[in-house]
Amino acid sequence: MNRNLLLGVTGGIAAYKACELTSLAVKAGWTVEVILTANAARFVGPLTFAGLTGRPVHTNTFEDAMAHIHLARWASVAVVAPLSANVLGKLACGLADDLLATTLLALPRSTPCVLAPAMNTEMWFNPAVQRNIRWIDELQRYTWVAPTEKRLACGDVGVGALADVADILAAATAAVTQPTPR
């Protein structure tokens, strides 16, 4: 089994936890490629992920005209952690205006994709976000690792915190070892 994990990191305070996820995945024997959105790079820099993976980090749609195709075909599994409300909306609507969104749309149907959202509680329960979740569910294409309830960075207490990174990696591992109907 190939153990190629494509990690998409979106903007939000939980982006720092993607470093822990990367480290855990590498220690577990995964080869990890990271795509950082522009907003994610404002929270955690590409050099951090390059140091953890020993590989270049992808941030620009136009660094290579076919990067989205090559990365999508390379991946055994894709994980988006944290998944922001913004990228969740792009995925629900099929929008592809950055490298991460374009790559996610280019994933072969046989490649599992794990989504681990993280956002403020009010954002999570916003009707538009909940509608986008339903739309994504209707595709029967993605595996969710639900956000947890706790004190959030903004001080609110509620659902929205990124799931434990060990649980996210476990979901990615399960996704590649269990056949998924497509």
Give the SSE layout:
Elements: E1 4-9, H1 15-27, E2 31-36, H2 46-53, H3 67-74, E3 77-83, H4 85-93, H5 99-106, E4 113-117, H6 121-124, H7 127-138, E5 142-144, E6 148-151, E7 157-161, H8 165-177
Parallel strand pairs: 1-2, 1-3, 3-4, 4-5
Antiparallel strand pairs: 6-7
Helix pairs in contact: 1-2, 1-8, 3-5, 4-7
Verbal overview:
The protein has 182 residues and is an alpha/beta fold. It has a single domain, classed as Rossmann fold (3-Layer(aba) Sandwich), CATH 3.40.50.1950. 41% of the residues lie in helices and 20% in strands. It is built from eight helices and seven strands, in the order βαβααβααβααβββα. The strands form two sheets. A five-stranded parallel β-sheet has the order 2-1-3-4-5, sandwiched between helices. A two-stranded antiparallel ribbon has the order 6-7. Strand 1 (4-9), helix 1 and strand 2 form a beta-alpha-beta unit. Helix 1 (15-27) packs across helix 8 (165-177) and helix 3 (67-74) packs across helix 5 (99-106). The longest helix has 13 residues, at 15-27. The radius of gyration is 15 Å and the shape is globular.
Provide tags for this entry:
Rossmann fold, 182 residues, globular, alpha/beta, 5-stranded parallel sheet, two-stranded antiparallel sheet
Short summary:
The protein has 182 residues and is of the alpha/beta class. The protein contains 8 helices and 7 strands, in the order βαβααβααβααβββα.
The named CATH superfamily: Flavin prenyltransferase-like
Backbone shape: globular
Number of domains: 1
Number of strands: 7
Give the amount of beta strand, in percent.
Answer: 15-25%
pLDDT below 50 for ≥5 consecutive residues: which ranges? none
The helix content, as a percent range, equals: 40-55%
Enumerate how many helices there are, as a single number.
Answer: 8
Radius of gyration from the alpha-carbon trace, in angstroms? 15 Å
Mean pLDDT: 94
CATH topology (fold) name: Rossmann fold
Sequence of secondary-structure elements: EHEHHEHHEHHEEEH
- Strand arrangement across the biggest beta sheet: 2-1-3-4-5
